[in-house]
Amino acid sequence: MQVEIRKLEGNEVELMLSDSTPAFANALRRAAMREVPVMAIDEVEFKVNDSAVYDEILSHRLALIPLRTPLKGYAFPGECGCREGRCPKCSVSLTLKREGPATVLSGDLKSTDEEVVPVSGSVPIIKLERGQRLELTAIARLGPGKEHAKWQPGVIAYKYMPVFELDEKACDGCGDCVKACPVNIIELVEGKPKITDITLCTMCRGCADVCQPKAIRIGSDPTKFIFRIESAGGMPPEQILLKAMGLLGDKLDEFSKQVKKL
Ligand SMILES: [Zn+2]
Asked: What phi and psi, each to the nearest 5 degrees, are found at residue 44?
């Protein structure tokens, strides 16, 4: 298998996996989305909530605010050894205290660990009217996306490499396919359609549908994948990928050990 990094910018990484299989691409995607743990608010203690929104709804909103996850790592609450899952090894407290009139923002959360803070300070949580108060302590913990979406490190997706096939004899060079392509990747070169960048093809088959002589066929290559990771901001995308590969490797090692015992 070959891996080529096509793009690494901000919270996004795009790879090309060649000489691979759908099973591998899917296993990597699932490991990244479901197994790579990040920090998220898991419990909220309300001291005062005069706002128009119930505690439960506010807690849910708080949980979905992406938090930075330091690489040094926290322990999973179940594996830490403390009983309540509230010690400094497995939890971080974030406190919030505001009085209206105000729009309470994620940046109002004050963390006990400066490395575990909201990725963005401008996520609105609730609007408080004059005299309304909100005071709470939120406990953030490490967890995997398979337990709750709040612990998903980002969006991970892949697509098969598109394949554009042209029957040159049948093609009459009408140019209808050029107009039909929504991502404008077809141009006429010497009267025949040519693709400028096949990786941008969405496989909508718009070009094939408008082609009267049926000269175009859109297919896909099941050994080549464009793999994309967009981090929610808690962890750099390349770290999500590296961790996912490590976790997948660990699982396979364990599987192989178990099989050898049989
Ligand atoms: Zn603990």
From this structure: -135, 130
- Per the structure, the count of domains in the chain is 2
Nearest in space to 221 (alpha carbons), one of 156, 159, 137: 159
User: What range does the domain containing 20 cover?
Assistant: 2-34+155-228
Instruction: Taking residues 16-29, report their average pLDDT.
Output: 94
Tokens 């359609």 -> residue: 193
- Whole-angstrom distance, CA of residue 195 vs CA of residue 163: 10
Please check the confidence at residue 219 and state whether its pLDDT lies above 90.
Answer: yes
> At residue 262, what is the residue type?
L
- Both tokens of 37, joined, read 């743990």
d(CA 254, CA 35): 15
**Centroid of ligand 1 to alpha carbon of 78 (angstroms):** 8
Q: Do 12 and 108 belong to one domain?
A: no
* Ligand 1 mean position, distance from CA 74 (Å): 9
Is the pTM value of this prediction over 0.90? no
> What's the 261 CA to ligand 1 centre distance in angstroms?
34
66 vs 214: CA distance, rounded Å: 49
CA 207 to chain CA mean position, Å: 31
